[in-house]
Amino acid sequence: xxxxxxxxxxxxxxxxxxxxxxxxxxxxxxxxxxxxxxxxxxxxxxxxxxxxxxxxxxxxxxxxxxxxxxxxxxxxxxxxxxxxxxxxxxxxxxxxxxxxxxxxxxxxxxxxxx
Amino acid sequence: xxxxxxxxxxxxxxxxxxxxxxxxxxxxxxxxxxxxxxxxxxxxxxxxxxxxxxxxxxxxxxxxxxxxxxxxxxxxxxxxxxxxxxxxxxxxxxxxxxxxxxxxxxxxxxxxxxxx
Lengths: 114, 116
Description:
The complex is a heterodimer of chains A (about 110) and B (about 120). By secondary structure, chain A is an all-beta fold. Chain A is about 0% helix and about 55% strand. In chain A, a hairpin with a 5-residue loop joins strand 7 (about 55-60) and strand 8 (about 65-70). The radius of gyration of chain A is 14 Å and the shape is globular. In chain B, a hairpin with a 2-residue loop joins strand 5 and strand 6. The interface of A and B includes residues 9, 43, 44, 99 and 101 of A.
């Protein structure tokens, strides 16, 4: 079955620390990959997406992610986090072979200490 | 302003009483979908629609119905709600072309449903 795994459920960092959130997916077809962020009390917003081309994609607010096909991974990174990055982060896969379904990971709650 | 509008924001109901959560988008998007968000489970897709009169099941469709009679509206119907449908629900839409941002989901503000 298709699935998305986020292994870090809770992450606590101090401001200026570097961030890397893991995301692995299980799907044999062509994948479209996303990272969404949900700030407290708000709906989800797109951080970045990968469809094809350069496997290193840059998103908003200094975030980037790298698609490694051989590892079925799409990890999210940020060199220096800020207090305002406190949020929940979701990795997602869009499958387009036969169906058009979004599969989300269970999310990672990031808390950045000022 | 481009947006996805869900109503109501909060809803408390009792087991078995039919309810509808409305969703409307003003961006002329072809794709619309519903999700439920539960602690520790992330978002799970309930139903999606590729266009008017075209709907399909997501991963957790049991107990839910949808319809897509107009491009802008995609209501979620719970014919006989049960307590295990207590959850936070999100509607989302997406364009189908690259110029419009294909694949990017635009989310509504959510509906917190409690079924007693």
